[in-house]
## 1
Amino acid sequence: MLTRTLMLVISLAASLPSPAQAEPQRDSSTRLVLLGTAGGPSAKRARAQPASAVIVGDDIYIVDAGDGVVRQLTLAGFSVADVRAVFITHHHSDHVADYGTLLLRSWMTGRTDPIETFGPAPIERMTRDYLDFMRWDLKLRVGAEGRQPLDDMIDAHDIDADGAIYVDENVKVTAFSVNHGAAAPAFGFRFDTADKSIVFSGDTTPEESVIAAAKGADILVHEVINVAAVDAMVERVSPGNNDLRRHIVGNHTSTDEVGKVATAAGVHMLVLTHFGGTGDPEFDRPEVWEAAVRTNWAGNLIVGEDLMIIE
């Protein structure tokens, strides 16, 4: 269990050795890797689209697969060939843009064992559609390179109810429903391993379901928006667009609210991600986010950045 002394290690890609220098350190403990921490579908200079990884030993479990997830995982020092399962919170494009690419690159990088994927309907159909989209290349590589068919490796599952959805020798994953407006159904996930409990809120308003799932957890990875930053962003990209503002503010969790959720859940650490309103240097600074969240959260806090490794 994590303690108030913050028994953790945080590192960024700049401090990692290149693949030519050394292999990334491997152990049996549970690590959380923030691959992409931006909120929203637009391109951001400093942050990639939403994706995280729970890593137990050599096995990688991906939560959401935004644009660039494979590149981010590689930059963090891990191999996409070690991805064992993928969990999608909902189907907004910033969370699934590279879902198919993740599966394809894992196969092309050498994985031959099955990959299970989970997400709201229609994840099963989306998976089949992607494989059909890539059929020309898949067929060529099976014939010319002697690979096993990718179709035979992927086992996709529509999540249709709350509860345990995946169990193996490393981890138990439980899904719980959250409120993300029109993007329904949407889910959060709780990962329980031998040494950690990690909860992902997914995109959501402040929800009792998140609090219940995160009770006593070691880490709560929660989305967050800065309302003032959202207002500035709307004024910059679409002045007077109240529908855009209402959609963002009404379907996410503000800096004031996220601390209340973490406090009610009694988590040991709050990790902020999926920052809404980023892109403006005035707002996207760690001290700005921390000061806003501290009004309702006195515990351990990490303002997430891409390629952070937390253990």
## 2
Amino acid sequence: MGEAAGAPGWGWECRACGATVSIATPMSWRCPNASATSPHHVLRLRQPLGGLPTRDSTNPFRAFQRQLAVDAFAAANGMSHGRRGELIEATDAAVAAVAGTGFEVTPFARADELSAALGFSEDGGVWIKDETSNVGGSHKARHLFTILLHLLAVESLGSAPWAQGDRPPLAISSCGNAAIAASTLAAAVGWPIRVFVPPWAAASVTDVLDSLGATVQRCPRLPDDPPGDPCVHRFRAAVAAGAIPFSVQGPENAWCLDGGRTIGWEMVRQFETVGGPPLDRIFVQVGGGAFAACVGAAFSMGGQRPTFHAVQTEGCAPLARAWDLAQALPDGVRSAARHWPELMWPWEDEPRSAADGILDDETYDWLGIFDAMYASGGAPIVAAETDVLAAHRLASEHTTIPVSATGTAGLAGVLARRSDLAPDERIAVVFSGVAR
């Protein structure tokens, strides 16, 4: 089932049970063996080995088109290369009409003033990938765009299981940037969407969702709820009732792990122009984990392997807990997928941090992050709340990027490890979302 004509070498494989899914399969959101009673599955992309060629385009989905699984899906189903490119460009134009901007390669540059303030030498320092001007104000739309392209390709190919004009709703669980990104993309193509948010979701977010035509449902924790995020529980119920998982959580929709890689690929290509030594380390903030998993996978494919650090806050750190527990396994983190229930479960305490966008009860895409850290000799970092606040303050004082405290949480990891970092180390962080 793994390969398909027109896309040799491509396919999906479950990290937990080994099941394979052809890249040509439409609506292939989850492992076929995943169920309500067996939820611990996640599909991993398999694709042909090779370098990282690009085309001359400022749109990352065109620049890296041939590296995207959604392109391989369409090719395997007989869609021509020209038609696939047209689908990307037409959908991007529709997004730009709603968001005021389409998808573009985002800046990645050394933050000179910040690097000096942190005591790095001129040979070292901090390079910032700035996603605050991306569609919806964060990196989240990158993940969701490949899900949307997949859906539109399914419709174009005549494989959709719904009648024209009777699309099932999209569904997402989110407290902020992911909800805005999802609702922006949905509005661009006229697709109905349901957004499940916590009771404390800010009016600055819900007002935007309302303006985009999303159906917003607040999700208080109910007495009979199982452990975990009540927004995720309501989201899963909606999907079970027929909604499409428009999610940035790989176990819910593996296609989100496709487009998110464009951020890392851009960083690889952009840093090649810097000259001198390669990057030494990357610090990436982690909530649900898809973002960090994608950046790690992208650097691996791009032929670079800086030490990878996943950053969480002391108010919610299920990934770091799982990493510590995995050290005691006979094969360490390499066997983590076989021990999912023993390593990853919802954070028991009420999550708290100024970086409220990464307070996911679980790190849903933890296995991909484990891969990136293990292969590069990295480890998770739990940043104290004082570091979270200091990172946001330093970003405000020493850069002009209008970033949120969630968006600077990777920099909080740098602060937490600053005494261990040499002055000439080259460090990368991603400012992932705009302040609202």
## 3
Amino acid sequence: MKTVRTNSKNEDFINLVAQLDAYLRVTDGDEHDFYNQYNSIETLQNVIVIYSNSEAVACGAFRPFDEGSVEIKRMYTLPQYRGQGFARNVIIELEQWAKELGYGACILETGKRQFEAVNFYQKNGYTQIENYGQYIGVANSLCFKKQLNINT
């Protein structure tokens, strides 16, 4: 397994996000366009891509949210690689990078229909919070937060 820190210009990241969007078009249905407007990758400067035998198999990113926190975006693992720890490595690397940049928390939004994602985030120390920003009042959205220990 190889982990690469990059940005949104990375072709492997772009290709993984295209597969993520195809998956979300199905699971989000009519709500996909609403969510999609907040998921542009063009300006993401903090992107992780994980490779297995030179194949890009998982990705994730963050962007600054406020002075003390980042918002995790575009987490995805190819279906045939799920359950093998790739997503966990992505989230750990994103959290470490955020800590290195001085951020003390990560927040994120996922959909209620993304059962695997909800379980994954809870298993990795994220707790549900009130919906924030554009997700306030959106019934299908679940928002989560994790405080980062910046001393480690």
